[in-house]
Design goal:
The structure is a single chain. The protein has a single domain (4-188), classed as Metal Binding Protein, Guanine Nucleotide Exchange Factor, Chain A (Beta Complex), CATH 2.170.150. 21% of the residues lie in helices and 25% in strands. It has 4 helices and 11 strands, in the order E-E-E-H-E-E-E-E-E-E-H-E-H-E-H. It has helices at residues 33-42, 118-122, 146-163, 187-194; strands at 4-7, 14-17, 26-30, 54-59, 64-68, 73-77, 84-88, 94-98, 107-110, 127-129, 182-184. The strands form 2 sheets. It has an 8-stranded mixed β-sheet, covered by helices on one side. Strands 1-2-5 form a 3-stranded antiparallel β-sheet, with no helix packed on it. Strand 1 and strand 2 (14-17) form a beta hairpin. Helix 1 (33-42) crosses helix 4 (187-194). The longest helix has 18 residues, at 146-163. The structure holds zinc ion (2 copies).
């Protein structure tokens, strides 16, 4: 089984995506303002591409294993109802976005910390979403692959619910609590993170 290895910038926290193939992957680039604000708040200069896009891979949470530094995993919400945005606390490397409950088995792994050529493992990018917030030279103007993204998410979620895989989620404890206490950005922090420099 092919795995894709990830490491935070300082190397203390490492995680792998198992079962990593073009068939299981749904790669997407999200240009939404919230993904951009998340990267900016963390001060991550490797996450965003020149158009403000974040490279993601939607996958089954059960396929993600944290190998070292699990105690460094931290949780951020941009607003009180915002999605769960996971990162490392050792060096503020973004990791993944998830729903706020493991009952919705949805994870978008952020691909920037991958330690290998992502394309050779997961295949080409398949979707461009939230392009209205893209900016810069040659910014994409049209959304691409949204139907496929939603379809594959639903299939993956149904499968995980049926085979019990949804209970294996590295970001939640067995009693369905997040492994880290969510920190919600203050309004000022959110405003600062939303401002494009
Ligand atoms: Zn680190
Ligand atoms: Zn986004």
């Amino acid at each position: 089984m092919t795995s894709l290895s990830f490491s935070c910038d300082c190397g203390k926290t490492t995680w792998v995506l198992r079962n990593a193939t073009p068939k299981t992957a749904t790669r997407a680039i999200c240009y939404c303002a919230d993904c951009q604000a998340f990267a900016r708040h963390l001060g991550s200069d490797t996450t965003l591409d020149s158009n403000g896009g974040t490279a993601l891979n939607q996958c089954n949470p059960a396929d993600i294993d944290v190998q070292t530094g699990a105690e460094n995993i931290a949780l951020l919400r941009l607003s009180p109802k915002g999605i769960f945005r996971w990162h490392t606390s050792c060096c503020n490397t973004p990791m993944a976005n998830t729903a706020h409950t493991p009952g919705v088995p949805f994870t978008s792994l952020i691909l920037a910390p991958a330690q290998a050529d992502v394309g050779s493992v997961l295949g080409p990018n398949q979707a461009l979403v939230n392009v209205q917030a893209a900016h810069g030279h040659n910014a994409p103007k049209a959304t691409k692959g949204m139907g496929r993204l939603v379809r594959k998410f639903i299939l993956r979620a149904i499968n995980a619910r049926l085979n019990g895989d949804w209970k294996k989620n590295p970001f939640f404890t067995s009693d369905r609590s997040p492994i880290a206490t969510p920190r919600v950005l203050t309004k000022d922090e959110r405003t600062a993170a939303s401002a494009r420099s």
